[in-house]
């Protein structure tokens, strides 16, 4: 769950310490108080949420496990990105259960050449790729 990855620096964190809320410090200057909150990740390896990320303040259902009442299959077996520190990364998506790597052969177009005018020819290459999946 994303919420458990953030802490709060705001004094009245009534969400059981899920994430830190805080405003910029006013160093003796008269400024209008900002209403934006600074969210700080609990784990410094995770990126802080951007303005485009959706962050919930209230508890959400446990999406790590299967929930047949809402038709959610959980994250077991879901493909993840082992090198990402974002929400698609295996660390967050797999809910600390770990992940496995599976190698597979994929055919791709390669050595493509553009011929004047209006034709592209490519070879078909076989590459070994690795897919990461949540346990």
Automatic annotation (TrEMBL):
One Pfam family from the record? wnt
Q: What is its main location?
A: secreted
What is a biological process (GO) this protein takes part in? Answer: neuron differentiation
Listed under GO cellular component are:
extracellular space
* Record's subcellular location: Secreted, Extracellular space, Extracellular matrix
Per UniProt, the keywords (alphabetical) are: Developmental protein, Disulfide bond, Extracellular matrix, Lipoprotein, Secreted, Wnt signaling pathway
Q: Which residues cross the membrane?
A: none
Which InterPro entries did the record assign?
Wnt (IPR005817), Wnt_C (IPR043158)
MF-aspect GO terms:
cytokine activity; frizzled binding
What Gene3D superfamilies has UniProt attached to this entry? 3.30.2460.20
Record's function text: Ligand for members of the frizzled family of seven transmembrane receptors.
Task: State the similarity comment.
Answer: Belongs to the Wnt family.
Please give the name of this protein. Protein Wnt
Q: Which organism is it from?
A: Ridgeia piscesae (Tubeworm)
């Amino acid at each position: 769950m994303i919420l458990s990855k953030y802490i709060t620096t705001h004094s009245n964190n009534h969400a059981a310490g899920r994430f830190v809320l805080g405003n910029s410090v006013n160093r003796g200057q008269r400024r209008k108080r900002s209403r934006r909150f600074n969210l700080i990740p609990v784990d410094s390896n995770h990126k802080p949420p951007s303005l485009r990320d959706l962050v919930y303040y209230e508890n959400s259902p446990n999406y790590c496990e299967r929930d047949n009442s809402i038709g959610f299959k959980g994250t077991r077996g879901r493909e993840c990105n082992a090198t990402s520190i974002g929400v698609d990364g295996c660390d967050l998506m797999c809910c600390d259960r770990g992940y496995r790597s599976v190698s597979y052969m994929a055919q791709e177009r390669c050595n493509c050449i553009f011929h004047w005018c209006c034709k592209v020819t490519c070879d078909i290459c076989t590459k070994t790729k690795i897919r990461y999946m949540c346990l």
